[in-house]
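This entry is listed as follows:

___
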Amino acid sequence: MDDAYEYGQIAAANSLSDVWAMGGEARLCMNILMFPEHLPFDTVQAILRGGYDKAAEAEAIVVGGHTIKDDIPKYGLCVSGVVHPDRILRNNSIQKGDVLILTKPLGTGVLTNADRGGLLSDAEHKAMVDCMAALNKYAADAVRSLDGVHACTDVTGFSLLGHSYEMCGESGLTVIIDSSRVPLLPGADNYASMGLVPAVAYQNMKHLKDKVALPKDLPSHVHDLLFDPQTSGGLLYSVASQEAGRIMEALQKACQTPAVIGHVEGPSSHPVMVI
């Protein structure tokens, strides 16, 4: 991001997400900031203010931090949280028959590539920034007390398909992703069709080539977006089918675009299958 305040917000939202992905609540944050000495002090302040404001929105406290000289600015948070031992969510405890729910649309990798080229409209840029800066706190709070949530992970650089594969773990079960139901950010399909796919997406494809089954007629831009590395992506929940309606209703009140994107079946030739 070129805007320092937005950069701080997104970095903080991304850092905080891991706590919510495990069913916890964020409590304490430590800033970790690397920057060159020639970086204007106003820029440093804006980065830290963006992170502070997101931590405050998360009802967490920034208690200090570390600064390090580096040629390239880098910022994030070390976050501590709390969770009841009986409510810890793991990323590999899916069950046969589960329904998969994603709380944010995909496309941040492709869109940031397009943004570097100055191609995004103002509306597309705003939607991208708003999505990355949005806290997963609200989704996590909405389902924390509900029964039937079996597993959760946050979707980040390993892509939707990569994190879906992680959810299979050693279970022997198969995650089925319905590509037609996966929500996308405005413009993501257009820019993916133009080939503005980040290099990390191709690394994800290489790593997952023997683990994911893809239909031969899957459009290339949909294929690429399923492997697109996300920054501060949404939460991916695996929930009991009989509770999915109630959980979706709670998520619809808490975040903008939750979507049922698949389900869990028994063993098959690949841990993840796209339809």
User: Anything to note?
Assistant: The first strand starts at residue 25 and ends at 35.
